[in-house]
Amino acid sequence: MKIFTAVAAAAITLAVPGQAIAQDTAPSAAEMQLAREIIDNGFPPETRMGMFDDVISQLLSQMSAAMPDVSDNPAMAAAFERHVERVRATSMEVLADHIDPLMDSMVIAYADRFTMDELQGLHSFIMTPEGHGFLARMSEVNGHPAFAQANQAYMQEYLAKMPGLVEQLRADVEKISGE
Q1: d(Cα 53, Cα 91) in Å, to the nearest integer?
Q2: Using the 8-state DSSP alphabet, how is residue 66 labeled?
């Protein structure tokens, strides 16, 4: 059952698919430096935890809005609110231990995935007042009513499918474990 729990926990997380083609050679020192400046200016160290907290809070708010309406049951509503706050607090606690490695890995990924010309263009943009504010304002974009409505509809449908997927996984794991 421990295996099922671990696999089920992994299976119900939201994964964002991504594809990129790595450069043929390792990034140069100049590419790494530009990528570092892009990340440090796009996600300033002194405000990056707050930026991530804003995004996490927006997503949790939208997920809460996609959950069944329990407003007629104050005890259930309070339990959901406590759960959402625990999820947010846990996310931030874990993120605090991983923020630096995440940012360092983004530097490597940017240097590896973008050409020198692309890095220079991104760097030029991110160094402008508009560019500097671009990444910092992503939580505002995520919280915009138009995006929130579309994202809530997505999450509502996604969450409705999870019990069936978890049950399929449980059946598969039990079948394998029973062999």
Answers
A1: 8
A2: H
